[in-house]
Structure prediction request, 379 residues.
Amino acid sequence: MVTGDGLLRIPLSGPALRRRVLALGVETRNRPAAAADTTITLWEPQGDLGDPALRQDWTRRLEAGRTALDPERLVVDLHPDMVPTLLGRARAAAWGLPVQAVQHHHAHAAAVMAEQGLEACLALVFDGFGWGPDGRLWGAELLHLQGVACRRLGSFAPVPLPGGDAAVRQPLRQLVARLDDAGVELDAALRRRWGLDEPAVRVWRHQCHTGLNSPLTHGAGRLFDAMAALLGLAPATVSQSGAAAVALEQAALRARGEPRFPDPPFALREADGLLLVDWRESFRRLAGQNILPDDRPRWALGFHRAVARAAAALAEHGADQVPERDLVLSGGVFLNRLLGPLLAEALSPRGWRIRQAQRVPTGDAGIAVGQAWIGGGRA
Prediction:
């Protein structure tokens, strides 16, 4: 229920929470949540806490929330340098409260569990990134959740992100990393195709090979960025994370009903107990295609179909290991208007129950609900 003050109250079915908690959400599209007994209350949007003025107001609101709730602990994102995590730890120390750090994608999935009264499920959580306990940037995760426990079963194969945040703003960096990972030689003809200059390519490849400011990412959102760049659908610089992926989605929507191009290929492999989806062959294959501007929408739609098939393969891998057939879809990539329906089409004949948030925001604005549900525990 959304109240007149902008709060979203989520009634919980089943056991009450064991403790009162304040969950602080994440840095962008920040919305904290308060949880007690059988209700989680998601606050109104707070904005992007990268803004110092907003941080001051946010801290005042947090003080008011503490007075109203009298929490027994604070819950933060696992990322050690995220603004709400840093501020939350400082506030908790001042208040004498314990802090619980919850992994980003675990919280995304738990938000849907809390809303829909699930006690166990498999989950596909696709977004741009979230800090993993292994120090990598997760973002295309197959998870098994039982109560507040979580186990990772699969993901997309990791690739370097040359320049870190700079690569999010400049999708061509991501394309160079993908092509380099796929063994594609960026000769003069290919550099001209994407407007790349040789010194920049040399620097970005050096970053990828040495790890210099080039973290490994599993992110589904980053895969969409790189494919948008390959198809010539992403500008050289984007002002907002996800803009390249939106351009790819819009192109794909224009191709519905047109003759199909082949779906880009992918491979499945196991490593360290995880099923990994490997996209290198897609980038090798499409780099060798003469992609005309009029053909871009059909290639974009084929890519969406391929991602849906890969997601279905991850889900089926999970089904081979656990009995759950409730499949939670969460994370900002599932705001895409094509991906969810394509995946549901692939899985619906196989007995899956697809679960997506109906009231809680699918992206980062809803993540504090999952943090609160995990931090509150179950009686």
In short: The two ends are 24 Å apart (CA to CA). The CA atoms of residues 49 and 56 lie 9 Å apart.
